[in-house]
Every structure is written in structure tokens, then in C-alpha cells.
Amino acid sequence: MTRFALLNSAALAALLSAAPLAAQDVQNDAGEDAAPKIVFGDEVREDYILVSAHRDGGLQVDEYPGSATIVNRGDMTDRQVRDVADVLRDVPGVAISSVAGQTQLRLRGAEGNHVLVLVDGIEVSDPFAGEFDLGTLQAEIGSYVEVLRGPQSALYGSDAVGGVVAYRSGEFAGLAGRIEAGTNETVNGALRFGTGGSGWDLSLSGTVVSTGGEPNARGGTRDIGREGYTLAGKGSVELTGNFTLRAVGRYVVTEGEFNDSDFDTTSPAFGFTVDSPGTRYENEALYALAGAELYALDGKWRHDLSFQIADIRRDSFGPFGRSFGNEGERLKASYVTAYAFGGSGLSHTLTFAADWEEERYRNTDPFGFAFTGTRSNENVGLVGEYRLSSNRFNVAAAIRRDINEGFADATTFKLAAGVPVTDTTRLRGAIGTGIKNPGFYELYGFVDGRFIGNANLKPERATEWEVGVEQDLFDQDLMVSVTFF
Question: Can you name the residues that pair with 353 across neighbouring β-strands?
Fold first, then answer.
């Protein structure tokens, strides 16, 4: 695995030590039999397992035949960077851009709404624009991030045409906290508590970020500040030796100021950002997931059923009150069944997954210019996947059929393979297709005088292939990976 550390000591930090994780008390989120643990001393390194790379529960990152990066817990700690967006800026193929109220993530040049973002397994993009505001995601203590580049529509459907970014809060035991302060009235703090016992675990966390900001207008003097608060919790309970219930919840509130552009064509500042007193935004999001996992046939046959919800509200305000707003909601249910078998050095996994999803959107335009009724779209996705692993090669194939309420049905696929040619050199290649359905904002969005949606838009399609080579150096302390796509 790549080892890297970028130290940043520009803030005042106070850390409370946390109790070490005990290997026998911590299980990978995917289940003990679904993916082997990697143990360093008495610490379980589940952050070296790609949970989002397959629908069967995960695998070690060096068995994945595609292009992926894990920013593990050690990396997150060493960097001393609190915004996950800042952590991802250094990941190959990732581009981050920000405006007030929206930090956008792109993979390999794809649009921001072409990247699926998962937070502890919950799809967190806003149904309004199909994007997730990455600026609202503060790194919790013990967290890590997975980045899968290239089309993943064969696994996850329309929103993953450019790739997948999965944030995982990780397993945690004990109490830990931090508080930092810096220039521009900046304060950043986090507190996390984890506990557990025989067959159960519980983790609670909170993060806060507040800054007075600085001017962003040419020649401006108005400071553009922001505040963000997150409360999160997750837990699981093992009812029997092979049946486990789990739950995840997250509540996020962000608010801040922004400046408008000058739209006066007679003004010398036309087109430029100018100080705009009184303009601000408020965003609120609630996410929840409940799931059940059952293992049969001595752990070889896994069943997973989950339900999740995302409820997101956005409002913008001007000097005279609320000027723009929208509400979005996503309901999703997924069932995954995977059967693992093998012998003679070969491991096979057959997986079937079924996803049902309904998204709802409502424009809350306060002026009555736009339609303010609820619009919705429903989708059913059926996934078939096969994975073959050995010490000589790794092969993965997936196909998905999406049955859409508002668009033509679509089929996507992905094929990938990796072959070690020496003990330290590995070749890999992949080809996949993706599809992206237009979002509600593209179809029905309305900004008076500036934007009107087009209800006749058709889905976008993509085909991508890649070849790469990975080379371990210095007794696997450094890995160099080169990919052409």
C-alpha cells in the first residue's frame, strides 16, 4: 500500500487518546466471512478493504483489478486536514471545486453529478442536482475514504457513471476528541465515543466547523464565512451467530454567506463577483439506514437487506428574505445475496442484487414563478456479478439492468482483470459502460431569468477502458501505479 504523510501544523490542536481496537471485538462492516481482515498487531485494518468495489461485501484492495485508492485512517491523521474535500485533492484523477454552498467532486473529468458518493453505505447526493456537497463532510476520528475511478454503473446504476467515492467512519472503541483554532475566526472540533460488547457495538460522533471567512469579491471587503454541524451514530447487534442488525444515522446543518455576480450590463463590474450584503444560504440534511445481514451454509451464502432515506433541504436568502429553495428526498431499498465457493487455490463469488429507488423533488420558489408541486422518479436495478480470485489472477464481471419510470430502460456492464507478472509487478485492465439519467434540476429547475430546465433531455451514455501496471518497491513500503484510460 502507498504510505504518505503531509503534515500541517498551522492549527492549535488538543487530542484525547483513544482506547486501542481489539481484533476480536471488531468486525468489518461487510461481515467477517465476506472479506478477510488485515491485522496489524492488535488493530484490525478494515480500511485496507474495499467495501464499495463489489456488491458482495468487499475485498482486499490488492485483489481489486480496477483503479482505486484508499486514503486510510493513518493518512487522514497524518495530514491533519479536516475537510474530506481537502484530503481528496491529492488523489489521482480527483478534481475539487467550490462555490458557496456546494463543493463539487469530479473523477477523471466527469461532471459532479456523475459521481456516486456513499457515506457509511448511504447514497447522499441531493436529488435536486444529483450532487453531494462535499464541503459538508468533516473527517470523523478514525474515518477513511475509498475512491473507485471509472464507470461503476454496472454495480450502482445511473449516478456512478464517473466512479464512486465511499466515506466510512470505521470502527472505533473508546473516547477521542480534538479542537483546533486558527486565523479568520476558524474553529474546528470533533468528538467521538465508541463502545461495544459481545455481539454489539455503538459509535456516536459530532463535528463542528466555523470560520469568519475572507472576501472573495474583486476589491471586496465582505468576509464570506460558514458554519457546519454534524451529528452521527451507527451501531449493530448480533442476534444470533449468523444474523446481524445494523443502523446508521447522520444529521447535517450548514449555513454560510455568499456574494452574487453583478448582472447589471451597464456596470463596469458586470460579470464579476461583487459584495452582496445579506446574501446567505442554509442547508439541512438527514440520512438514515437500517439493515439486516444473514449468513447461511457455514458463512458461504450471504444475504443483506437494507433500507435508507435521504431528506435534504436547501434555501438561499437575499437582503429582503428567502430568494430560492428546494427539497429533495430519496427512498431506497436493496437486497444482495452472494454465494462464495472454491477450491484448489480458486475462490468464486456469485452475486445478485436488486435495488429499488424513488426520488422526489420540489421547487420551493417563494415568488411563485416556478412550479412548486412534487415531481418524482422511480427506478429498479437488477445486478448480476461474478468474481474469481487466485494467487495468479483476479477477474470480475458485472451486468445491470435498470428499469426506469421516466427514461428508457438501460443495460450496463463491466469487465476487469488483474494478473501479477512477478512478485512485485501486477498488470490490470478494465472496460465498462455507464449511463446517467438527467436530474430534476436539469429537467425542471428554474432560476428566474437565468435558467429554465429542459424536460426533454435524454440520458447520457459512456464507455471507458483502462490498462495499468502496479509496482511494489522497498519491501512494499511504496507502490507506484500507472494507468492509461
Answer: 336, 383
**73, 144 contact by CB (below 8 A):** yes
> Could you tell me the sign of the dihedral formed by the alpha carbons of 26, 29, 35, 39, in that order?
negative
Region of 250 please: left (phi>0), alpha (psi -120 to 50) or beta: beta
Round to whole Å and give the CA distance between 104 and 113. 9
Instruction: Tell me the pLDDT tens digit for each residue of 230-285.
Output: 999 999 999 998 999 999 999 999 999 999 888 888 888 888 899 999 999 999 99
Q: How is 245-268 classified by DSSP, letter by letter?
A: EEEEEEEEEEEEE---B---TTST
| CA distances from residue 119 to 68, 230, 361 in whole angstroms, order as listed | 17, 13, 21
What nine digits make up the cell of 144?
477513511
Yes or no: say if 276 and 320 are a contact pair by the CB < 8 Å rule: no
Dist. CA 399–CA 181, nearest whole Å: 49
Question: 350: closest CA among 411, 403, 395, 294?
Answer: 395
Q: What's the mean pLDDT when you consider all of the chain?
A: 85
The single-letter DSSP state of residue 87 is H
- Left (φ > 0), alpha (ψ -120 to 50) or beta: where does 8 sit? beta
CA atoms of 280 and 276, how far apart (whole Å): 9
Strands 115-119 and 163-168: parallel
CA distances from 311 to 255, 258, 288 (A): 17, 24, 9
pLDDT in tens, 347-390: 999 999 999 999 999 988 888 777 888 999 999 999 999 999 88
Residues in contact with 321: Cβ distance below 8 Å, sequence separation at least 6, in sequence order: 366
| 124 three-state secondary structure | coil
Give the containing element (helix H, strand E) for 76: helix 73-79
Across 56-109, the runs of DSSP E, i.e. the strands, are 59-60, 67-71, 94-99, 102-107
DSSP string, 379-394: EEEEEEEEEEE-SS-E
For residue 77, give the H/E element and its range: helix 73-79
Distance CA 231, CA 222 (A): 30
Tell me the C-alpha distance between 290 and 37, whole Å: 24
Residue 85 DSSP symbol? H
Cα torsion angle, 253, 362, 157, 33, sign: positive
- Give the pLDDT confidence score for residue 25 in this predicted structure: 31
Element (DSSP H or E) covering residue 444: helix 440-444
Spell out the residues 6+ positions from residue 298 whose beta carbon is closer than 8 angstroms to its own.
none
DSSP 61: G
